[in-house]
Amino acid sequence: MGMRDLARTWTREDVLALPDDGNRYELVDGELLVSPSPRWLHQRGIVSLVMAVYPHVRAHRLGAVLISPADLDLKSGQLVQPDLFVGAMVEGREPIEWTDVGIPVLVAEVLSPSTARFDRITKRRRYQRSGVPAYWIVDLDARLVEVWAPGDEKPTIVERTLRWDVPSADTGLSIDLAAYFREVWAE
Prior knowledge:
With 187 residues, the chain is an alpha+beta fold. It has a single domain, classed as tt1808, chain A, CATH 3.90.1570.10. The protein is 28% helix and 26% strand. The protein contains 5 helices and 11 strands; from the N terminus they run βαββαββαβαβββββα. The protein has a 6-stranded mixed β-sheet with strand order 4-5-6-7-8-9, with helices on both faces. Strands 1-3-2 form a 3-stranded antiparallel β-sheet, with helices on one face. Strands 10-11 form a two-stranded antiparallel ribbon. Helix 2 packs across helix 5. The longest helix has 20 residues. The model has no long low-confidence stretch (mean pLDDT 91).
C-alpha cells in the first residue's frame, strides 16, 4: 500500500539517495510517496497502453514513449515516475536524458489499489500545475479512463474511444477502450 511520510519535507536529492529496495519512490511537492511493486494486471495494462500509443508517437515524430522507472522533475524539483509518458521532441530529436523530457506531452497512470489516491489527487494536481497537456488515469477495474488537462476541475470520463490530439500531428490517436480492456484482461 502506498504510504506517506509526514515527518519531513523531502528533496529530490534525498529521494535519489534512497536504497534500491524494490519500492518505488516519488517526490511530489516535498511529499515522499512510497509504493510497492505493482501487480501483474497493472503491468499488463501499461504494456497494452504502450502498444497503443507507441506507433502513433513514432509515426508522427512526437517524441519518445517511456515507462517507469523514471526520474522526471517536471521542471520543478519533483521526482515522478509515471507509468507511461511521452517526452516531446527536443531540437528535432527524441529526448535522450531525463532532463530533456521537461514537461511530458502525455502522462498516464494505471491505477493500483496502493496508488489510486496518489494518482487521482496528489500526482494529478502536480501534473496539472506543471502544465502536462494530457493526463490519463486508467481504471482497469471500472474499465474507463479519466482524462485531465491543466485547467480541469473534473475529469472527462471515457468508456468507449480514448482520443489524444497533439497540435503537431496531422491526425489524432484513437484507442478503442473495449479492445484495450479485453487485451488487458486476456478475454
